[in-house]
User: What shape does this take?
Amino acid sequence: MENQFSRKLAGAIVILAVLLLMPTSVSAQDSGSPYSVYVDDELVQFDTPPIADRNHLLVEFRSIFELLGYQVEWDARTNTAYGFNHEQHIAFPIGQAVAIVNGEVKTLPVHTRVVNGRTMIPLRFVSEEAGYEVVWDESASSVYIKSGFADTEGFSVASTISLNGYVQLNGTVNERVRMVRLDIMNIDVPSETRKIYLEPMDGQIDALVPLPYGKGMYTMRIFTSNGTDRYGAFRLADTIKVVYPENTDLIVVPLNEDQHRYKVMMRLSPETEQAVLKITKLDREAHMKINLQDIDSQGIYEEEVYLAFGPGVYDVKLFEWYGGNQQIKSTTFTHEGNAGIELDKEQTDNSLLHVRGIVSPDMQWMWIQYANMTNSLIRHAFVPVVDGKVNQPLHLNLGEGQYLIKIEFGQDGPYNTGYVTSETFYADNLDTRNRYLIPSETVQSGERSIIELVSRITEGLSSDKDRSLAIHDWVATHIALDAAKYLADEEQDETAVAVLTDRVTSGKGFARLNAALHRAAGIPAKIVSGEVLIGDTWVDHTWNEVYLDGQWVIQDTARDAGIWDLDHGVFVPELSHVYFNPAVELFTSDHKKVIDLAE
Assistant: This one.
């Protein structure tokens, strides 16, 4: 009893923290839901998706309670839903903020209700009364319910690959378990479930289990019961996935420790010289591509993959090349995991979107390409990824129009070309502002630190030229150049905010910070790329063009910040105004413009 109370208390504490992070809107979610619910890492399929009411998530009563081992009933006369097992009898009167547990009235945080014919109850109750730990993952808008009462010490299959339509199941249960139920489902045929009942012998399960619905990916849910009634209360103990492959030369094997990971087993042709594995999500422009390495040994090649394009049907292709010929092997399978990224909206009037979600924790960098298909402008940006969690603003700063946004993830970078996954989104930007006033990933003119600084710098100044000069002088006198890195062509991809914080740059940071401060002041500013002459050597360089008095004027705060000693690799701070709106003849004598950067 004490152990059970401790688990309930722990669950209640966890859910209380969960509720503080829940969204506060109410949503009917007629065609879907931003929230996913997992029981022991298995995605729950609802007829009516979860909905949020203030700080509380409501879920479909029947789906959750049946998975947790309760029998459920509905009394139409009293408009009440019931759930019961060997230990509890719970009643939910519809339209009331109460539940009756073993005869005792309990207060619920929100009213129960019926949505699309389904009883919806607050998830908090699952923790406080059913004794389960509930964990909220804000980045993925997902809830994970962990059953702390599993009656089993473990189940396993001899192999997660079946070549004959059967799998060998073994398990150990404790002495209270009298019956084990297997719910077997081919993921491609979700409407069909085969139930198989087993009785443990001396606490052991040893059975040859059929896969009855043909070839494909199977989910086998394992339930245990302390009784012998097949229609009694069962509790979910484990979930195992296995595959009955259609193509034995190309097998996608589920890794049960992580529902998003698979092992792809490929039988390469003996003469293969080069091979590429490509996995494509069929209902969206998303794929991953892996160049197979060290294939000289031939035979069976294995590659572990993490799928982060959401649930659905995936096409797997193995491309092999030898002697100028190409061979393609293929298979398809259905994936249930919800990891992936999504745009928060498909239209914006302020040039700003967000992409959020979860990708493989192995991914370290995100590459974003923006293409305005209306005016044919293109730019790209690199963004680091931490722990596989993505919550990134997207700056559509190439003007008004329809955008194609391609997002790729890779393990190396940011400039490494080995990006593994690629996904394409489309969005409309209705913002008609001058695009050189809009922030980007590297020119963060909307950040508070930038806005507050430019307000102090330009206080009391009325003309754009005076304010621009004040910004130029501040950047030139407060930011130092790391001359050794600059001259060694080791420029870092520094953002304006990073340069402001560190007060040092390896080169490009001068132009980015100067542009960010001007844009925050309402003065359009470009970043320009080209070359600068230092001594007798032309080196890569960036500077600005700022819109003043109806024309674009040049500013090179890096050169105005001091003297560059190429021979000794040092930078000597010394403010000048040589490159603040210089004469064209002077500027072109030691600068060569190549392109306006779309930052």
